[in-house]
Amino acid sequence: MAQRSNDPDLDLADLGHLSRSQLRDRWHKEVGEQPPGSFGRELLALGIAYVRQERRYGGFRKASVREVDRLFGRTLANPAGEGTAPTLARPGTILVREWQGTTHHVTVVADGFIWNGRTHSSLSGIARAITGTKWNGPRFFGLREETDEV
Length: 150
Hints:
Elements lengths: L19 H12 L9 H17 L4 H16 L16 E6 L2 E8 L2 E4 L2 E3 L2 H9 L5 H4 L10
Antiparallel strand pairs: 1-2, 2-3, 3-4
Helix pairs in contact: 1-2
């Protein structure tokens, strides 16, 4: 392969053939700053490819960037993760889901969820029992934060 590392139109596939040093130089030219010293060849190539694709096709929607910033801020405010899980529903709420012709009712209680007369600790466990396959419980029962649809 000819030496093409100084070619600004270097194909994305060719990035994988460059040395770490060449990728660091390419990053500096394309991103406008020095790459983090801890980045290896693969991460440098992926970062350069992303920057090129973003330039060509556009980046994330503004709403998506705001949501990531909000979640990141919430994580920084409470790095231990304590109490960051949103409450799915208030105790006393009855969730209704039809699955293969059968209607299932789940009652939210303070220490979990009641389904078929038994208390369960998670909606995912109930969804798995209903379907026989692994499900995200909140998704199965239609509980999503509005921001999840960004």
